[in-house]
Amino acid sequence: MSKYFLTTAIDYSNGDPHLGQAMEKIGADCIARYRRLRGDDVHFLMGMDEHSQSVVQAAEDNGVDPQVWVDRMAERFADFWARLHCSHDDWIRTTEPRHARSVQALLSRIQEHNPDDLFLGEYEGLYCIGCEEFKQDSQIVDGHCGEHPTLELKETKEANHFFRLSRYGDRLLALITSGEFSVEPAIRRNEVLRLIESGLQDISISRSRFPWGIPFPGDPDHTVYVWFDALINYLSGTGFPDPGYDKLWPADLHIIGKGISRFHCVIWPAMLMAAEMPLPKQVWAHGYVQWEGTKMSKTAGTGVSLGSAIERHGPDPLRYFLMREIGFESDGNFTWDRFDERYKADLADGLGNLASRVLAMLGKYRDGRVSDAPADTTLDASGSEVMARYQALMDDLDLRGGAEAAWSLVSAGNLFVAQTAPWALAKAGQDAELDSALTSLARCLYRLAVLVSPFMPEKSDELWSALGQEGTAAAARWQDLAKPPVIGAQTTKGAALFPKTNTA
Ligand SMILES: [Zn+2]
Q1: Ligand 1 centroid vs 154 CA: distance in angstroms?
Q2: I want to staple 430 with a disulfide (CB 3.0 to 4.6 A). Which of 108, 224, 266, 425 is the partner?
């Protein structure tokens, strides 16, 4: 088994999660589930970023101590991710002692290997509390942060510890260009390359008079700058600096939003190079979920609540919709109309209808038992072709493409039902043809249960049990998809997978 360590961005504890954050977690979960299906030894890390100024602000606004506040928020987020079936193996919080230890160990390693990379200096500039960073002129639009137009930038001047980021531009350019450090998709890679080419400035990595943070080693008046702190969570999750952390490190994949690619594709690899540690293999920077053309975010105060989006048709349909309609690459618009249309067309009338028709016919004509009749070659060939296409797309992290591939098998299945008309074969007493059609359709549903499982784990398991299979679809062996073991299975027609509702 090969190790596959993937992470998501960790979220600020300053309010409930929104749909954009949910899309990221669902996409990562979909990849984690797909890798497990392929037999990888997956380690999937998610967590919370708890040391920002916005957290202190939120705690103050709510009249509680920051620690009480972050504990409360961590529970809120964990509840949402559980409702959405996120299957992370570890949950890191930056207020945990294991993380503070890891941050201090990384700083010591930089101090030890490249002492010149850390120095004292003074910084003056405009600070965005939403981004938790000093903004450069090119990032300021009409006097506001481009990402947070509703927040005021804060004029800030302080003596700080600095990191010599400027030293790493040329090496980073070479590593990204050669693909040794892979930044995807290409549009983000090009942005990062242009940014590095325009020249890197050294960055401040500590804050004075801001006690809510990890103490800066050797300087009790300073805490570690929240971003420098947060990025190290990916190492803390491996047990760094304890021996054995390199069983997980380097990470295979960091999944982030496009707005924080500078931190992950420039600052983070430079920090690791300064500590003389291996770089993550790949960063994937997805686009935003938009609502009426603007980015969904807490600070901007726009959009639809995650809770209402889950309640609309349930967690699995939301997972499917986000991956299929918004995708994991560019920005995409969330609208209730499109959600309802996808639910009806792809789920209720597509997969749901195919499953209920096939299971009903198996029950009616064969008491639910799948015969050992030879399968129809046309539908079986579609199944094999779809599997190969799905695998290639999912390997490339093209989740929308993977969902499309799986649904082309739904269409093939529904077409096969219409063309073979098993009810007519039953009426005409053509038993051999009827058995062959039903076995082919059972094989098709078996494949669909497995291919759909990364997107809709709960619905896939419902279909799996209806097919008379043991355990869960996620535990199926990938190689079984070549010849689904359905012969002799006792199927049952349960409740509709995707009931029609008054919105669909
Ligand atoms: Zn900002």
Answers
A1: 11
A2: 425
Residue 490 has phi, psi (to 5 degrees) of: -100, 105
Burial of 402 (0-12, 13-18, 19+ CB in 10 A): buried
Q: What average pLDDT does the segment 244-264 reach?
A: 97
- Report the candidate in 52, 122, 128 with the shortest Cα–Cα distance to residue 94: 52
Please write the tens of the pLDDT for every residue from 187-207: 999 999 999 999 999 999 999
How far apart are the CA of 131 and the centre of ligand 1, in A?
Answer: 4
Task: Work out the number of other CB atoms within 10 angstroms of the CB of residue 86.
Answer: 24
**Domains located in the chain, CATH noted:** 3-303 (3.40.50.620), 336-482 (1.10.730.10)
Name the region of 21 (left: φ>0; alpha: ψ -120 to 50; beta: rest): alpha
CA 117 / ligand 1 centre spacing (Å)? 27
pLDDT at 138 over 90: no
Residues 68-80: tens digit of each pLDDT:
999 999 999 999 9
**pTM for the model:** 0.94
Dihedral of the CA atoms 497, 502, 503, 504 (nearest 10)? 50
299 CA to centre of ligand 1 in angstroms: 9
- CB 111: neighbour CB atoms within 10 A? 15
Inter-residue contact 231 to 260 (CB < 8 Å): no
pLDDT digits (tens, 9 = 90+) for 412-462: 999 999 999 999 999 999 999 999 999 999 999 999 999 999 999 999 999
Number of Cβ atoms within 10 Å of the Cβ of 218: 12
What is the CA(149)–ligand 1 centre distance, in A?
Answer: 8
> How many angstroms does the Cα of residue 129 sit away from the middle of ligand 1?
6
Structure tokens given for 61: 């606004």
